[in-house]
Amino acid sequence: MSLGLRIFLVYVLFVGLTGYFVLNTVMEEIRPGVRQSTEETLVDTANLMAEILRDDFKAGTLSENRWPQLLRAYGERQPQATIWGLPKNQVNHRIYVTDAKGIVVLDSSGVAVGQDYSRWNDVYLTLRGEYGARSSRSDAGDPGSSVMHVGAPIRDNGKIIGVVTVAKPNSSLQPYVDRTERRLLIYGAGLIGLGLLFGALLSWWLSRALHRLTGYAQAVSEGRRVEVPHYRGGELAQLATAVEQMRTQLEGKAYVERYVHTLTHELKSPLAAIRGAAELLLADMPTVQRLRFVGNIDSESARMQQLIERLLNLAQVEQRQGLEERVAVPLSVLVEQLLSAQAARIEGKQLRVEQAIGSDLLLIGEPFLLRQALGNLLENALDFTPAQGVLRFSAERVGEQIECRLFNQTAPIPDYALPRLTERFYSLPRPDTGRKSTGLGLNFVEEVVKLHGGTMRIRNVEKGVEVTLRLP
Asked: Where's the HAMP domain (predicted)?
């Protein structure tokens, strides 16, 4: 099943469930809402009638007065009204009045006069001073025959002397309820349909975009030349860019091209020196000169060998996706070993070495890589530190990492060179010889630090340069 179809099905499920619950909730609220509004109107009508009938009720002249005729005429009226598109051709209110004992003394329908209604809640509760209302079926077997009754007290100086009840059948409200439900269903179905259409278009667009990207990846894997799909911003554009960058890196064109050009340039000088010295050695010359040319060949060969070895080490680290082992390496012991290995150079330049690394500080990583990285840093520092200069190792714990710092007394690094020090093959002339190194040492250090999940920073400080490594 395609991703677009899966997204569409999930979208359909979400829209369907949301629409169902919303519509079901609203539909369930329509009928009670209409009845509540009608009941509120019945309350007003009942209280109005209680005030209108009060004087005649007190005088006992309701049945003798014109009220029976008026109510009968009211029940026979035909309003011929159209309410929100629905016709209303008859009135539906029934009005009856009971005395203080619950006996009906006036009924607009004329069927209940003289009957005892004291047991019905609209009369019973009203006579007790409470809100009296009920909903009763006129036909016990027909749920649609329920009628709402609302009572209002007739008072004489605060005393309840009778009850006026206004009743309205719920069936008269059903056309409005049905009409509202139909419209709601139509509008709800329309909105759900539009939502599903929008979801289908979105799924189609996303599937098409991913299909273009998939086709591009397949074409690249088959070695065909294709253009990367273009998208107008967003995550798809970022994904396309990332895939293109990954393709470039996997093909290694830029990587190999840069290495080949630079390596060719770096090897050109020592090869030229070796060839020139070899040609001169073919001729007769004094022993002193012969030894000097032989020494040149040896030094240039060592330089080529160092360049190739460092390049291989760097390529190996760059291709790594993670560490092969993680062990605890005592930092102070590692630094002591490196200083001991460089003791001849340190003594030859009469350097003052300071070490402030606690014996409890442990690095977690590959010992071989860590030794090579710190060794490259130390060699680089020795190249730039003048005779009788200062070399200082220090370290401290910072959270879950160790911050290791190497300071060497030297001239400040030019501002233009600081951001380029870790570039491949970039190097500054050594103060003692004026020659440049392979330019791979600091780049190797940076790759090892990244492989360990750390960071590296080189900066000018007072009287020298400080390299800071943060390692786990």
From this structure: 204-255
